[in-house]
Design a protein that fits this description.
heterotrimer; A alpha/beta (401); B alpha+beta (550); C mainly alpha (374); B: 550 residues; alpha+beta; 3 domains; 5-stranded antiparallel sheet; 18 helices; C: 374 residues
Chain lengths: 401, 550, 374
């Protein structure tokens, strides 16, 4: 009996030791990590390589936290970010080089945004995205953005609103995505568009402006891709057209003009679109967009000659017209670029799957050009806000008494 | 040496396992164990009988009581002509002197029995029935039983010419009064607590359950201590198998001393090596009464205010008596809070260590920055910090229990606040860690009955978390579940209350009392209905018939 | 000879079946590789196809209430052939256990602990499983009811959280792909997740005596609960990920990663990881129990407790050797495994049932029932 128990004890100790010694492979102490907030990809001097820039948060060292100063935005002279840069053939190789040459590992999981430089986008961006999809650390819901210019400048930027441009951009796109989901192009959305039926993916573009300190980031439009390469861009105005045709916009604002003096700003509470595709026998495609917009009156500038009811009706008409015009303009731009970022291809593929197989090859070159768009816009303007008339109208009424 | 010690313990463990746990379903049948029965084997020397000579008897008694100083012998003469000799033997301090002198001696001295009658054989019987004024009288003729009476606080009456003695009830030792117990305070509910006297305790239970079926059985165990032990249950409701098992297990104990119910608990419990107690205890009679009404068996031990109840389910640790005196909505909320508190106190340090060391991606970004900043200045790895703080907390808790009251408050303030602050400022530990441990500590007090299991599992989870992160905590959790699933307490599965719909009325939430029609499944056998006719409140409200205000 | 004397109630058995099916719901990537976006169609057909198979299992339970499957084989085919077929079933059970353990190890290595060698993870896991098996089936299936409900709530919760990203249009167009892909997918679904219910034929002696109607009720209700979860999870994944579905090895995890309700609720995939580990734990424990009982039955011993540890360790060291990498694993799951599983789950039991009814077994059914009630 003694023997058996000895053996059991030995076995037990072996297991315990195995568990104890075998652990801690995955343990990473936080003070041995760089917390990555933004990744930037750019072209490098060597045409086969890219520049990988990693923006990480600088956590002030040494001082133990004793009341008072916490948080990463240190305001006593030290930088809030540490930028790590290298040139390499692919993204993961760049990251490996960087972590090898620094005293800490890189923590990828808090990456807020990925910035791609314009030049690199024009060269072709798909092959660099493979690591981001394959690795479990890299999150798929991080937004992509194209920088008008070089991406690493955005990483270096010291913005007026935030010392860490990565965090800023992350919040920026979270806000924008509340207006319309299309603004926030995550990697998974990009992949979905890429694999869709003859759809041209789009990614927002930002521009950095301002001097040394206190720079600013602006959203200037969307970049249009075809086969992974950026072929052009549409500006903010044209983006509106795209957004209104794709639908589901909330809490945006629309500017309505009539002539130089009469402006009005409408709050878009809700804009929903239904798209219907019709395929005629000769291959011609007719798309009907049914747009329903619920709006509120934000600001009226001018429009002296109307009273409230007339004004509301008039503004309604103006808004509907504006929607139609804007979408048609954007469609013209799309046709010029020969890029179907309206996702009409998807519509037809879903509705006429058999015919689509035949027509797919001709879609981009021919058929898209011949798409006929019919926009039916319906705007509802129920309330004028707090004030019934503008001050000018009031004055006019008083004068007429 | 250590090897041999551990192997001996393992051998004993396996032997008991073989006897107790061959069947997981019904451990009650395997209780024909081969423990040696010990009636009075060590008292063989004292198995003496009395003789007719008074002096010899007294000498025997004094010798049996080791000639102690507090053994008092009072000789007296009684009878019509005051010729018969007698002696009272008692232990000073244990008897109520008023009873001894006034009631016993007084009545003896007044006795008018003639000498001839006193020469008869049934002398003791006459004295007992016709003369004495004591309430409880027992006839004994062995020295053993007589000194047992003395040691219980009774007085022994011996007479010349009779080989028999009377044991008269005259208990009068000092005992603590019935106060609110310090360990189980309530906001609403009775504040009586048990004392150290067996009779007081059983009386307190009797006053709660004034039913003729409440049965109190009595044994004496412990070779040296001869402690009085009572088993209390409701006949017709309690499971007879459980009662039998309890009786058997207690009867077969061959121990030297029983000082507290904890001793008995360790000797009769089902799973001695588990961190979970399978026998519950309480210091308040209403708690015990409620458990007896559910069909459980209570064990009361003389000398301690803690009363055991078997069988025990894990859910009981999360139920307090106050739950049932407060209204159901709030009681349910507090019950759920208790479950969450238990989860927090066991797993919080482990989860914190796992998240910050292994899975930093799970922490929101801004929180990560403050935690990372606090990690910058501290020298130890997180796991050591956590261990240090848990250890410091246990130190403080033990110190707080032992300290005299006026000093206790100051030390707790000094310890908790100042030491914590200073440690953080000095950079030894980080502020988030202190917060986590503080929350753990506070949450630990919400489930007081499970203190022993908490501390152990907390440490195990912490170590597993330090080794393989969140996966380790998961393994610890699964191991815990499996262990709980395999525990039985006197035949009842320890942790099965979530599986039965009927029991759900009292586990996660506390349903209103008018919905609890049946007793919990399995514990009670026989009469299982609580409410014969289901009458929710307001059904018989006369005001409704009037259709308006009263 | 009764190996394990523990008894569980019928409802617990039902929940055990439901739980077992639910744990297959999270690893559906191998179908997605074949039928991509339209995977829900083969799943529906697979469910329909598995109903008669479940009926067959239930018939076994009704006909032979206190014999586990290997004993039935011995009774039907005679001692020698019965034992041979029983031995192949032992191989089958151990194989399935190892495959599931391999799934667990791969998943852990991929998502939770990237640098720890998976053998450590699986070893500790199996040790706890063995501990559970030693306590008997009562303990193994104890938590099935509550965990079924918890998993169900998690699935519903994930549906709610992902509600703003679900696009049911992703389920259409339907019936676009060549016919053979549907057949293949249906075959895979029927045999791999749904047909593994054959293991419950080994635990028949542990279930308390139940009547015919009750047996039908328990089998089908349990299976129904499992089906619902399987369908819900698959539809959720397809709706959220759309045409990306077949790219990912773990689509469930990816869908949960996309939950983004403000910044606080953005790392929900940990729930997926925890849920999957819990589910797999119980699945592997049940499988380990079945393997142990099968081996004990084969060699005619009642000491299954010691066997549990041996088989557990064997499975730990056997599972990494099965495939070189997970791509091979997926490939085999798509091509070879359905046929092997189909043999053991459908063909052999059907044959056994037919022969048993021809031989008018069991001969002394009344005695058996009386014995169990005593």
């Amino acid at each position: 009996m003694n023997n058996i128990f000895k053996r059991i004890l030995i076995l037990f100790m072996v297991i315990v030791l195995l568990a104890m010694l075998g652990g801690c492979w995955d343990s990473k102490e936080l003070n041995q990590l760089f917390v990555l907030t933004a990744t930037a990809l750019d072209v490098a001097k060597d045409p086969k390589k890219i520049t990988v820039t990693l923006q990480t948060v600088n956590i002030p060292q040494g001082a133990g936290p004793s009341g008072g100063t916490k948080g990463s935005e240190a305001s006593n002279g030290t930088d809030a970010v540490i930028i790590l840069k290298t040139e390499s053939v692919s993204l993961l190789e760049g990251i490996m080089t960087i972590s090898r040459d620094s005293n800490r590992d890189v923590l990828f999981q808090h990456n807020q945004i990925r910035i791609i430089g314009k030049e690199l986008a024009q060269k072709g961006v798909i092959k660099y995205l493979d690591m981001l999809m394959r690795d479990t650390d890299a999150r798929l819901e991080v937004p992509l953005v194209i920088a008008d210019g070089r991406a690493d400048e955005v990483a270096y930027a010291n913005l007026a609103q935030s010392t860490n441009s990565g965090l800023f951009l992350g919040g920026f796109f979270r806000d924008l995505s509340k207006i319309c989901k299309e603004y926030n192009v995550r990697l998974i959305d990009f992949a979905r568009m890429l694999l869709g039926e003859s759809v041209a993916p789009i990614i927002p573009i930002i521009k950095l402006s301002g001097g040394k300190d206190k720079q600013e980031i602006q959203f200037i439009g969307m970049a249009v891709f075809k086969e992974g390469k950026m072929i052009g861009s549409i500006d903010a105005e044209e983006t509106f057209g795209l957004i209104w045709s794709l639908g589901d916009v909330k809490n945006d604002s629309m500017l309505v003009r009539e002539g130089e003096d009469n402006n009005a700003v409408l709050h878009i509470r809700n804009l929903k679109t239904k798209a219907e595709a019709e395929l005629e026998k000769n291959g011609k495609v007719k798309i009907t967009l049914d747009i329903n917009m619920m709006a509120g009156l934000g600001e009226v500038y001018g429009f002296k000659d109307y009273n409230t009811e007339q004004l509301m009706a008039h503004l309604k008409k103006l808004a509907e017209e504006r929607i139609k015009d804007r979408i048609n303009d954007t469609l013209l731009v799309a046709k010029q670029m020969k890029a179907d970022f309206f996702r009409f291809g998807n519509l037809i593929a879903k509705k006429y799957p058999k015919e689509w197989k035949r027509l797919k090859k001709r879609w981009e070159e021919e058929l898209f050009m011949q798409v006929e768009l019919n926009v039916k816009a319906k705007v509802k303007l129920p309330r004028p806000g707090e004030v019934v008339n503008t001050l000018e109208q009031e004055k006019k009424r008083d004068d007429n008494r | 040496m250590l090897f041999r010690f551990i192997s001996r313990k393992l051998r004993y463990f396996s032997r008991t396992l073989r006897y107790k746990k061959d069947d997981t379903s019904d451990c009650l049948e395997k209780d024909e164990m081969t423990y040696s029965s010990t009636e009075d084997t060590s008292n063989e020397k004292k198995e003496e009988k009395l003789v007719k000579n008074l002096e010899d008897n007294v000498k025997k008694m004094q010798a049996a009581l080791a000639e102690s100083n507090d053994t008092k012998v009072r000789y007296f003469r009684y009878g019509q002509k005051k010729t018969l000799k007698g002696a009272l033997i008692y232990i000073d301090g244990m008897v109520n002197t008023t009873i001894v002198y006034d009631a016993i001696l007084g009545s003896l001295k007044d006795c008018k029995i003639s000498e001839e009658e006193l020469k008869k054989e049934n002398l003791m019987d006459i004295i007992d029935k016709e003369v004495l004024c004591a309430i409880e009288v027992k006839h004994e003729n062995t020295v053993n039983k007589l000194i047992e009476g003395c040691l219980n606080g009774d007085t022994v009456l011996l007479t010349e010419g009779c080989a028999c003695g009377l044991v008269l009830d005259s208990k009068g030792y000092d005992k603590r009064g019935v106060f609110e117990p310090k360990s189980e305070t309530v906001v609403r509910g009775p504040r009586e607590g048990y004392t150290e006297d067996l009779r007081t305790n059983t009386t307190l239970i009797r006053r709660k359950i004034r039913n003729g079926n409440l049965k109190i059985e009595h044994t004496i165990i412990g070779r040296k201590t001869r402690t009085n032990v009572s088993i209390i249950y409701l006949e017709g409701v309690a499971n007879p198998k459980v009662v039998n098992t309890v009786r058997q297990r207690i009867d077969k104990l061959d121990v030297e001393s029983i000082l507290e119910t904890g001793y008995i608990e360790e000797y009769i419990e089902d799973a001695p090596f588990s961190p979970f107690a399978t026998i519950s205890y309480s210091e308040k009679p209403d708690v015990t009464a409620a458990k007896i009404l559910e069909g459980r068996v209570a064990i009361v031990v003389d000398g301690t205010p803690f009363v055991l109840t078997v069988p025990m389910l894990l859910i009981e640790s999360f139920q307090t008596a106050e739950d049932y005196y407060v209204r159901p909505l709030y009681a349910s909320l507090v019950r759920i809070l208790r479950y969450i508190a238990y989860a927090i106190t066991v797993f919080a340090p482990a989860i914190f260590v796992a998240l910050t060391s292994f899975h930093s991606e799970l922490i929101p970004t801004t929180l990560l920055f403050s935690i990372a900043q606090s990690r910058e200045g501290t020298p130890f790895p997180l796991f050591l910090e956590a261990l240090l703080l848990v250890f410091a907390f246990e130190l403080l808790r033990e110190a707080g229990v032992r300290l005299p009251k006026p000093v206790g408050q100051a030390i707790s303030i000094v310890g908790a606040i100042i030491m914590g602050e200073a440690a953080v400022s000095a950079g030894i530990v980080g502020a988030p860690m202190v917060i986590v441990i503080a929350v753990t500590a506070v949450a630990g007090f919400i489930v007081p009955n499970q203190n022993d299991s908490l501390s152990i599992i907390r440490l195990v989870a912490l170590m597993l978390a330090a080794i393989i992160g969140l996966y380790g905590i998961l393994l610890c959790f699964l191991g815990l579940l499996i262990h709980l699933a395999s525990l039985t307490s006197f035949g009842q599965p320890y942790f099965d209350s979530f599986g039965y719909a009927q029991d759900a009325q009292d586990t996660v939430v506390r349903m209103p009392l008018w919905t609890m029609e049946k007793r919990p499944d399995g514990i009670a056998v026989g009469d299982t209905t609580r409410i014969k006719k289901f009458v929710p409140p307001l059904e018989t409200d006369m005001a409704n018939k009037d259709g308006g205000d009263n | 000879m009764i190996i394990d004397k523990s008894q569980i109630s019928g409802t617990r058995f039902m929940f055990a079946i439901a739980f077992y099916l639910q744990s297959s719901a999270l690893l559906t990537s191998f179908i997605a590789g074949v039928s991509e976006q339209e995977s829900w169609i083969p799943v529906l057909f697979g469910i329909l196809l598995s109903l008669p198979i479940i009926y067959m299992f239930r018939t076994f339970m009704v006909k032979f209430p206190d014999k586990n499957f290997l004993q039935v084989l011995e009774m039907t085919y005679g001692k020698v052939i019965g034992k041979i077929i029983g031995a192949t079933y032992v191989w089958f059970f151990i194989n399935v256990t190892s495959l599931n353990l391999l799934d667990l190890g791969d998943f852990t290595k991929l998502a939770i602990l990237r640098q720890t060698p998976p053998i450590l993870v699986t070893l500790l896991f199996i040790l706890i499983s063995v501990w559970a098996v030693r306590h008997g089936f009562n303990v193994v299936a104890r938590y099935s009811s509550i965990f079924t409900i918890i998993e169900f709530s998690i699935v519903i919760l994930s549906l709610i959280l992902l509600a703003n990203q679900i696009d049911l249009n992703n389920l259409l167009p339907a019936f676009q792909m060549p016919f053979y892909k549907y057949v293949q997918s249906t075959h895979i679904i029927t045999t791999i997740p749904l047909g593994e219910l054959v293991v419950f034929l080994m635990v028949t002696p542990c279930v308390k005596t139940i009547s015919k109607q009750q047996a039908t009720k328990y089998w089908f209700l349990g299976a129904l609960m499992g089906f619902i979860v399987l369908l819900l999870v698959l539809i959720r994944d397809i709706a959220v990920l759309g045409n990306n579905l077949h790219l990912f090895t773990l689509p469930g995890m990816v869908s949960l990663r996309l939950v983004n309700l403000g910044e606080a609720l953005s790392r929900i995939e940990i729930i997926f990881a925890v849920g999957l580990t819990l589910l797999l734990f119980f699945k592997i424990t049940i499988l380990l129990y079945v393997s142990t009982i099968a081996v004990a039955q084969l060699f005619g011993t009642t000491q299954y407790k010691n066997l549990a540890l041996i088989i557990g360790i064997f499975v730990v060291f056997y599972s990494p050797t099965l495939y070189q990498n997970s791509v091979e694993h997926s490939n085999s799951a798509r091509t070879i495994e359905p046929f092997v599983n189909g043999l053991f789950e459908v063909i052999l039991p059907l044959l056994t049932l037919i022969i048993a009814s021809i031989l008018k077994l069991p001969k002394n059914k009344k005695n058996m029932l009386q014995k169990q009630e005593a």
